[in-house]
């Protein structure tokens, strides 16, 4: 694959294990200094109190500030769009749930459009008995 060949061109030896002897895991940096830059690290990297500080970048540094800033800015915009989509999804799911409850209630209590028909039939009955 092209990504692995470019990686192997940049670094000759790709480590397979971290300082504590565990198989390394691949992560992607999202920091302003290293946006979208893949690296290998200890599987316990994000755990609090982890003593292993092993990490090894797989991708070269983005040298030009403009592209680095642009890459980070795009990531920030993407995250914001994802959050907005989650809010919209939550809003729509809530509305769907409300409509389902309303529909269920109407099904249980009887459809409201049938009530005028029932009233009309009762009026006809009453008028029938009054005219007898
Ligand atoms: Zn480790």
TrEMBL record:
Residues spanning the membrane: 113-131
InterPro entries in the cross-refs: Znf_GRF
Domain of life: Eukaryota
Keyword Cytoplasm listed: no
PROSITE patterns on file: ZF_GRF
Every GRF-type domain range: 18-61
Metal-binding in keyword set: yes
Keyword annotations of the record: Membrane, Metal-binding, Transmembrane, Transmembrane helix, Zinc, Zinc-finger
Protein name: Quinoprotein amine dehydrogenase, beta chain-like protein
Classification of source organism: Eukaryota, Viridiplantae, Streptophyta, Embryophyta, Tracheophyta
């Amino acid at each position: 694959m092209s990504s692995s060949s470019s990686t192997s061109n940049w670094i000759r030896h790709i480590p397979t294990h971290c300082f504590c002897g565990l198989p390394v895991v691949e992560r992607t940096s999202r920091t302003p200094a290293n946006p979208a830059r893949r690296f290998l690290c200890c599987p316990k990297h994000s755990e609090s109190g982890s003593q292993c500080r092993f990490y090894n970048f797989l991708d070269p540094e983005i040298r030009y500030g403009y592209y680095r800033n642009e890459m980070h800015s795009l990531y920030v915009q993407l995250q914001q769009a994802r959050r907005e989509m989650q809010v919209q999804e939550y809003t729509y799911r809530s509305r769907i749930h409300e409509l389902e409850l309303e529909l269920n209630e109407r099904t249980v209590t009887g459809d409201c459009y049938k009530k005028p028909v029932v009233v009309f039939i009762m009026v006809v009955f009453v008028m029938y008995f009054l005219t007898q």
